[in-house]
Amino acid sequence: MSSAAKPATEVFLALKLDASEILPKFENANNWQERYRQIMLLGKTLSKLEDEFRVEQAQVRGCESNAWLYHSEIDGKHYYLADSDARIVKGLVALLLTACNGKSADEIVAFDIDAYFDRLGLTGQLSPSRTNGLFALAKAIKTSV
Amino acid sequence: MDFPQLRAQFPTLEQTLEGYPLCYLDTAATSQKPKCVIDAMTQYYHKDNANVHRAAHQLSSRATSQYEAVRDQLTGFIKASRREEIIFTHGTTESINMVAHGLMNQTQAGDIILIDTAAHHANIVPWQELAKRSGAIIKPIPLTEDCRLDELAYEALLKEKPAIVALCHVSNALGTLNPVNQLVAKAKAAGAITLVDGAQAIAHLEIDVQAIDCDFYVFSGHKMYGPTGIGVLYGRFDILDKLEPMMTGGEMIKTVSFDATEFNILPNRLEAGTPPIAEVIGLGAAIKFIQNLPKAETAQREQELLAYLQTQLANLGDIKLYGASENNIGAVAFNLADEHHQDVGILLDQQGIAVRCGHHCAMPLMQSLAIKGCCRASIGVYTSKEDINRFIEALKSVKEILLD
Lengths: 145, 404
What we know:
Chain B: One of its GO terms (biological process) is cysteine metabolic process. The complex is a heterodimer. Helix content of chain A is 46%, strand content 11%.
């Protein structure tokens, strides 16, 4: 992850992802089409990273699409900003951030990503395949704390 | 041979994914394997497992004769002039590396190496390494707007008297067929050593290396219904005989003392170490499988399926097709509107459809198309019209979800 310039603290704090509102939409989805619609809608709630931040140093390796991740520790809590040029990856990243944003290092270390995606009906999205950057992003979040 | 019977020979195709029957349209990445190939390898491990060329015992003798019989099979399969022209490698990539490495002592600073822009990385990077070490210069052969090799630009480049010309027979990413006989003839007239990457051609076309008249022709077993881990380097005897071995040791040695080592003669000279024996035997079974197919009928069927696939894609709307529409072999490359190829791939996979989505290990080609990547649907002998229909239906639902 980048040690170079990153977005300002208030940009990190501005990202609000309310798990109690977001997760039921996935748990209640009747079919995969609905689930992926929700993923893409959620992706849209992550604002696009400014071009100056869409830089190589912030890119997460292992993604077929481009994905960028920024991390900031504020008052002992961990905050993330991420973006991707692929819509589903961006939505999946938003799901990851829903679980991790504003959490303590201990909470992030204890977070069971596989179980989380299983619960949301998204098993199979987390594989180390190079066409799926989510695994790499999850790893990057885990190692950031 | 009727089609259901042919398809039934591929056990992997009889499975469901996400509740959908598997629709495998990624044969250009690797083909599925018929039971005869799997059985041949199992049989070797069950009964004949021994190292080749070495021991005096019966198992080794059986393994050796099976292994060497495949060399004979290949000699006929690609119409080489003699069996010593067939070298077993681990795949296309190793074959090209062996040639690029082997030509080191014959390459000088300032020598020009021409490379097909549509080449995949395996036919680019080994030459770059050769250039780095020898001071040779790499020049890409440009493509025309419809992604064919630009023959006028090629002829202009040949005037510079390149030392080496590396071409692909059929483009990995786009399925475009190159007129290799013509291209090789021109390269030879200019005095170049020629290598043709046949990885995408070998499962679809009848190959005659003497008619192509190239110096080297390379391909992999796994794209021609054979196992992974086995490839072939065909080289014209006199020029193959001059290649410096990339690897030493094992059967490639004739005599060793601490003063000097004498290498073996071809083909052993270029096959160091214990070869992939089971894979060679599996490849032999794959060749038999291909030779038993009704050739004309199979080729026609594949061409019709590909044309049907192209038409159905074009009719779907919002599809950008890449590469020439005519004379394609086995594969069609496309993007859905401006959508990211990975999004399309994930949503197709969700419906049990396997296609390739990415840069297809041909980044320079993607750069020349000004795209990050694309999706590629590719077919094999087992592909049915039903597969294509299912793929198109799945793509319709992807379109609904993404373009909603």
